[in-house]
Design a protein that fits this description.
- InterPro entries: PPIase_dom_sf, PPIase_Pin1, PPIase_PpiC, PPIase_PpiC_CS.
- This is Peptidyl-prolyl cis-trans isomerase.
- This protein is an alpha+beta fold.
- It is about 35% helix and about 15% strand.
- The protein has a 4-stranded antiparallel sheet, sandwiched between helices.
- Strand 3 and strand 4 (about 170-175) form a beta hairpin.
- The longest helix has 16 residues, at about 100-115.
Length: about 180
């Protein structure tokens, strides 16, 4: 017998449980803590939400706290981890010289820049990074989250630009700022 569900029984607590915290509060707290945000800037963004404002902020690489990028990684014998989603045993990577990886990546970059291929399609087929399944998309990241040469190259790019070859401990990359 349970008195809780019985129609003639009153329970000690009649108040509903408190509502769960709202995600919007968390998001707005983050925005307030953003050191690059100013009161005037917040006011402007609140009342004038134009795509142009967002693009302008994103394209100014030196003032942005975070950037978004996609990349194509080609691993080689000098890479710190010699396995990838397409070469789990690392057999091909172990037998690929850095020069061969650079040559392959230069040819890929030329095809993209000339319009023969789309960055996302090539990344999906050739990148040794698991981001290949997302067309090379790494999402947004901030300073000190990537290896220094990768970070420096990404922050130096404008949105839509593609880097030259970038060397890291992971291998050689081309990076597209998105």
């Amino acid at each position: 017998y349970s008195p809780i569900n019985h129609p003639n029984t009153t329970t000690a607590t009649t108040e509903p449980p408190p509502p769960p915290p709202k995600p919007a509060t968390i998001e707005s707290d983050r925005k307030r803590k953003d050191p690059s945000a100013t009161a005037a800037g917040d006011h402007h963004k609140t009342h004038h939400k134009h795509r142009h404002d967002k693009k302008t902020k994103m394209s100014s690489s030196s003032s942005s706290d975070k950037v978004r990028a996609s990349h194509i990684l080609i691993k080689h014998e000098g890479s710190r981890r010699k396995a990838s989603w397409k070469d789990p045993e690392g057999r091909i990577i172990t037998n690929t010289t850095r020069d061969a990886a650079v040559s392959q990546l230069k040819a890929i970059r030329d095809d993209i820049v000339s319009g023969k291929a789309k960055f996302e399609d090539v990344a999906s087929r050739f990148s040794d990074c698991s981001s290949a399944k997302r067309g090379g998309d790494l999402g947004s990241f901030g300073r000190k989250q990537m290896q220094k040469p990768f970070e420096d190259a990404t922050y130096a790019l404008k949105v839509g630009e593609i880097s030259d070859i970038v060397d890291t401990d992971s291998g050689v990359h081309i990076i597209k700022r998105t």
